[in-house]
Amino acid sequence: MDFTFVSGNLGLDLAGTVGDRRGARVDLLPTPAELARWTVAAGLLDVPPAAGDDDLAGAVALREAIYRLASAARTGTAFEAADRRTLNLAAAPAPASVLLGEHGVERGGDLAAALSSAARSAAELLGGPRAALVRECEAAPCTRLYLDTSHRRTRRWCDMRRCGNRAKAAAFRARHT
To answer: Which residues contact 134 (CB under 8 A, 6 or more apart)?
Structure first.
């Protein structure tokens, strides 16, 4: 399965690497190689970094902490101290580098730098006024969190092409049966 980046925030996109959290959970980061591939697909690095089992465990812990923190922001509940600690530890290293090279933008760094960039993105979102824009996709079984930046703040799906289209097609079929 390919990665999607529709959440409007890199940290939320990392949290979105799990599908159907309340059902037949689908993990898009089952191996260190997939985690390394995600860093490139996310535009954090140009070359997949070295990643091992411990790195994957740390990334998964960060992903889950971001999901819980964003869910807390969405529902107006207090952040858990352990989740804040996990996010802050991941955000502490220097982020991935972005340089202007001879042939355009060059992104580099190791896995810790890539995860730091994602953690910083989540921290800036969840610690600021845009945290109130975090929503959860209404399409079953999607559980992706996203930023509702629509004009009237009435966006219902994480992505119109996938979840929104499926929901509208199902509603159409229900009306015509």
So the answer is: 12, 70, 73, 74, 125, 126, 145, 146, 147, 148
User: Could you please report the per-residue DSSP string of 66-111?
Assistant: HHHHHHHHHHTPPPPHHHHHHHHHHHSSPPPEEEEETTEEEEE--H
Sequence spans of domains, the chain? 10-131
Beta strand 26-27 pairing with 18-19: antiparallel
Rounded to two decimals, the pTM is 0.90
- 78 CB burial (10 A radius; 0-12, 13-18, 19+): exposed
**pLDDT for 25-52, tens place per residue?**
999 999 999 999 999 999 999 999 999 9
In one-letter notation, the amino acid at residue 6 is V
Residue 148 has pLDDT above 80, yes or no: yes
In tens, the pLDDT along 78-104 reads: 999 999 999 999 999 999 999 999 999
Look at the chain and count its residues.
177
Query: Which of 31-45, 127-141, 163-177 ranks highest by mean pLDDT?
Result: 31-45
Q: CA-to-CA distance for 149 and 22, rounded, in angstroms?
A: 25
- Return the ∠ at Cα 161 (arms to 176 and 68), rounded to 5°: 110
